């Protein structure tokens, strides 16, 4: 049998290879074709060695080998191939070991390459984020954020509006506002303040500021330095220190000229009253929050202006940014109020009344001077116990419009006007008048003094101020007519004067009058009014029966010069002009030949009426005495009405004695003050008596 190992070479195309003739296991690279193994020189089994061996044995190239030689060669090839495989495996093992050693990193080792890559990517992401955010801020939120930033650094301060002035009829200021300052320091700003003196030396800080400020503020330099110096860091402190309060503009201007950073003003308006105590309760007083009394209170809306505002940008320490935005809405000053008072007449009336109160031992009194045609009040005096304590300006009490009393005989002119218009009586109608008179319902009235029976005309009843005669006249009038005329002349209704607390008086409806009151109202009892109401009755008669309302405000003038006049001078005809003229002429007899002779004025014809009545005392009982005189001058062309009311006089009680002298003094001064010329003829009077009494 043939040994299988000695088989000849397998034919080409054979799919199996003898174990001894396997090709070396050579790894190919991807994409590389079959590799031919080229035997290396000097390596057994290589082609070059085999060729040499063949030549040495005498073989020619191309000659085949013997079977024994072939097997030997195959064994050599197999052995060499195994060695190569082992060498290749060794090389592979060495490579893996190198990789393992390379991958085995020490603790804390950082791969620099990876770190750079990571950081580069992170930076790119961060820049991308910032870019997107910047685009969002600039393009989407830009305007909103800019507005918010501006609002955070913008400060708004109030610009206080100046309160309007009060000016009397002659242009004299009676109330005005003046700018005043509180000066304070910011200790933090002062600590950083630097400046250069005239010698070009750098100065600054709180001590140098104290040196500059001391002579201006009138404060010791050492004391001022303490106020300006910021305490130690660990101490609590208020960085704003008040230095001086309520100083004039001149002082602040001097401080401002020093240009010290950290010194600031606090501006406010202070009310001053050049007229002092004169008319103080009428003018009133204003505080920080507005009017508190008098006209300052009642006209507060007119006098109060509209505050303005200033918006500006400020730095971190509160300093104004010079180039920043500044928005200013100017303040609008309050309106100027031109009042009707003549402060000279006001002062004179106050002095005249004060002297008479002392002379009569009276507790209080009122004087009113009023223009007949316009109802402008030229003087409004209320002398009361608190006036002496100088508190009246703060309380604003004006007794002339707040206190009520029975007008007494001064209201008899209303009865006369009603009789002239509602009966057949005339000023010369004749009456027989006793000092006592009993009505049909059994009510007995008497005159103030006992006297024999008198033969008096209607004018004479008024001249003698006869209660019994007035009751006789009033009996011809219904109760409704009596009530209507009292109301028509203003009793029971406020005058509307521009002062708070006015009383409307007391006037019950006629259905509530008892058997006595229905007659008592004819001579001013059983009802009550204030001094201003009573004064206006006389002004209406003197103005030909045309009624207007007494007032203190002539006009208001706004900041632009627009004038708004008072409408209270508008008139209403409440009685016939002839009736008014007749009553005025009857009143002239009171002064010329009646109970009011004390009210006469040299060179002027005066018409007036005395009054003596009762008022409620502190307990509410009608135990207080009221003496009065109200008159008009000149009779020929009435210009002024003056009323004088004195309460609780001790030396005398009758108006002709207590009040008439004050009337004469104040009226004479007022006529001369206003340049009203005297008259050179006697008044035309109605007869006051008839029959045998006419000869007296």
Automatic annotation (TrEMBL):
Residues 160-321 form the Penicillin-binding protein dimerisation domain. One of its GO terms (cellular component) is plasma membrane. The chain crosses the membrane at residues 116-135. Residues 365-667 form the Penicillin-binding protein transpeptidase domain. It is found in: Membrane. Keywords: Membrane, Transmembrane, Transmembrane helix. The keyword Zinc-finger does not apply. One of its GO terms (molecular function) is penicillin binding. The keyword Membrane applies. Its main location: membrane. Residues 83-102 have a biased composition (Basic and acidic residues). GO terms for biological process: cell wall organization. Belongs to the transpeptidase family. PANTHER family: PEPTIDOGLYCAN D,D-TRANSPEPTIDASE (PTHR30627), PEPTIDOGLYCAN D,D-TRANSPEPTIDASE FTSI (PTHR30627:SF1). This is Penicillin-binding protein 2. It comes from Jonesiaceae bacterium BS-20. The lineage of its organism: Bacteria, Bacillati, Actinomycetota, Actinomycetes, Micrococcales.
């Amino acid at each position: 049998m043939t040994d299988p190992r000695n088989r000849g070479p397998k034919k080409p195309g054979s799919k199996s290879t003898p174990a001894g003739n396997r090709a070396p296991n050579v790894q190919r690279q991807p994409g590389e074709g079959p590799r031919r193994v080229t035997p290396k020189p000097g390596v057994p089994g290589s082609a070059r060695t085999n060729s040499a061996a063949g030549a040495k044995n005498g073989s020619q190239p191309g000659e085949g080998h013997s079977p024994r030689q072939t097997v030997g060669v195959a064994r050599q090839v197999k052995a060499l191939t195994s060695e190569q495989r082992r060498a290749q495996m060794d090389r592979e093992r060495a490579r893996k070991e190198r990789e393992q050693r390379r991958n085995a990193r020490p603790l804390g080792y950082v791969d620099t390459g990876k770190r750079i890559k990571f950081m580069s990517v992170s930076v790119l992401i961060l820049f991308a984020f910032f870019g997107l955010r910047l685009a969002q801020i600039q393009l989407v939120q830009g305007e909103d954020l800019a507005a918010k930033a501006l609002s955070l650094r913008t400060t708004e301060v109030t610009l206080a509006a100046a309160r309007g002035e009060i000016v009397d009829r002659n242009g004299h200021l009676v109330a005005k506002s003046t700018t005043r300052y509180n000066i304070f320091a910011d200790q933090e700003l002062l600590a950083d303040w630097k400046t250069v003196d005239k010698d070009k030396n750098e100065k600054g800080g709180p001590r140098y500021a104290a040196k500059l400020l001391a002579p201006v503020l009138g404060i010791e330099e050492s004391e001022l330095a303490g106020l300006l110096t910021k305490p130690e860091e660990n101490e609590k402190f208020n960085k704003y220190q008040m230095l001086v309060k309520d100083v004039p503009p001149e002082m602040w201007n001097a401080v401002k000229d020093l240009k010290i950073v950290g010194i600031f003003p606090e501006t406010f308006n202070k009310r001053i009253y050049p007229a002092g105590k004169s008319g103080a309760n009428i003018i009133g007083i204003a505080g920080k929050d507005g009017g508190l009394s008098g006209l300052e209170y009642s006209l507060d809306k007119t006098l109060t202006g509209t505050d303005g505002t200033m918006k500006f940008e400020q730095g971190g320490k509160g300093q104004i940014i010079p180039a920043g935005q500044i928005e200013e809405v100017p303040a609008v000053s309050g309106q100027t109020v031109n009042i009707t008072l003549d402060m000279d007449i006001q002062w004179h009336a106050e002095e005249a009344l004060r002297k008479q109160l002392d002379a009569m031992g009276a507790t209080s009194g009122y004087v009113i001077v009023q223009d007949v045609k316009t109802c402008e009040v030229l003087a409004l005096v209320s002398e009361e116990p608190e006036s002496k304590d100088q508190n009246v300006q703060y309380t604003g009490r004006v007794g002339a419009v707040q206190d009520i009393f029975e007008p007494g005989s001064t209201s008899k002119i209303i009865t006369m006007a009603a009789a002239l218009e509602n009966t057949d009586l005339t000023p010369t109608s004749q009456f027989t008048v006793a000092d006592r008179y009993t009505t049909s319902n059994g009510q007995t009235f008497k005159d103030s003094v006992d006297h024999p029976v008198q033969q008096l005309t209607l004018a004479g009843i008024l001249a003698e101020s006869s209660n019994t005669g007035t009751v006789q006249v009033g009996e011809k009038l219904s109760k409704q007519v009596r009530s209507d005329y009292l109301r028509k002349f203003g009793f029971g209704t406020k005058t509307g004067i521009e002062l708070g607390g006015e009383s409307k008086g007391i006037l019950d409806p006629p259905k509530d009058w008892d058997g006595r009151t229905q007659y008592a109202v004819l001579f001013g009892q059983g009802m009550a009014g204030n001094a201003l109401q009573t004064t206006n009755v006389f002004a209406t008669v003197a103005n030909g029966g045309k009624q207007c309302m007494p007032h203190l405000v002539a006009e208001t003038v706004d900041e632009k010069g627009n004038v708004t006049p008072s409408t209270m001078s508008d008139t209403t005809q409440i009685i016939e002009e002839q009736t008014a003229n007749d009553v005025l002429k009857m009143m002239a007899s009171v002064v010329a030949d009646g109970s009011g002779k004390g009210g006469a004025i040299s060179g002027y014809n005066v018409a007036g009426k005395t009054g003596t009545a009762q008022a409620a005392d502190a307990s509410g009982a009608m135990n207080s005495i009221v003496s009065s005189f109200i008159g008009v001058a000149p009779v020929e062309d009435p210009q002024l009405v003056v009323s004088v009311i004195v309460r609780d006089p001790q030396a005398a009680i009758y108006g002709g004695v207590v009040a008439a002298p004050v009337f004469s003094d104040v009226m004479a001064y007022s006529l001369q003050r206003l340049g009203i010329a005297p008259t050179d003829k006697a008044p035309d009077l109605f007869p006051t008596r008839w029959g045998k009494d006419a000869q007296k």
